[in-house]
Amino acid sequence: MDDKKRCNWCNSSQLYQKYHDEEWGVPVYDDATLFEFLLLETFQAGLSWITILNKRENFRKAFDNFDYQKIALYTDDKIQELLLDAGIIRNKLKVYSAVTNAQNYIKIQEEFGSFSTYIWDFVNGKPIDNNRKSLKEVTATTPLSDKISKDLKKRGFKFVGSTVVYAHMQATGMVNDHVADCWKRNE
């Protein structure tokens, strides 16, 4: 670990710091990466993010490198195989939702040209800078995450409550929630 000032939530491990420094809050416009984060965020529901980060490579292997085209076609046999995989979160509803969400992801791509176009349109194509002074100011949801959550649910997505959606927005840089004294704040 080094002496850089970071958002306090990431200081418990080097893996957390690496994620914070290299990924969290960096704008993502690539559909494949956006799906990876969406899948991971849906599995995180009710758990800590570090739990998911620790299992990320297991998820990558189990879910065909997060290839939503393949995931959309998973059979019951593949789902049963996933439910036996101790390297991931073996929640039956979440595993089934990964398949459903991949199918709906493709439908959004067909409608909007890309998932990126769809999701980034909610913020007019550029990150919202929340100018957080401290971690206490960071909320778990916003009216915008409520709106996106409702729209995704209307389109058939599962495990996309407002908290999951806001975490996805933070992770993919749709919002900048780095606190004022974090070195990543103004990068």
TrEMBL record:
**Molecular-function GO term, any one:** metal ion binding
The reaction(s) catalysed by this protein are: Hydrolysis of alkylated DNA, releasing 3-methyladenine
Tell me the enzyme class: hydrolase
Report the EC code(s) recorded for this entry.
3.2.2.20
Q: Give binding positions for Zn(2+).
A: 7, 20, 178, 182
Protein's UniProt keywords contain Ribosomal protein: no
What domain of life does the native source organism fall in?
Answer: Bacteria
UniProt keyword DNA repair present: yes
* GO biological process per UniProt: base-excision repair
Q: Which PANTHER family match?
A: DNA-3-METHYLADENINE GLYCOSYLASE 1 (PTHR30037), DNA-3-METHYLADENINE GLYCOSYLASE I (PTHR30037:SF4)
What is the stated purpose of this protein? Answer: Hydrolysis of the deoxyribose N-glycosidic bond to excise 3-methyladenine from the damaged DNA polymer formed by alkylation lesions.
The name this protein goes by in its record:
DNA-3-methyladenine glycosylase I
Question: What does UniProt list as this organism's lineage?
Answer: Bacteria, Pseudomonadati, Bacteroidota, Flavobacteriia, Flavobacteriales
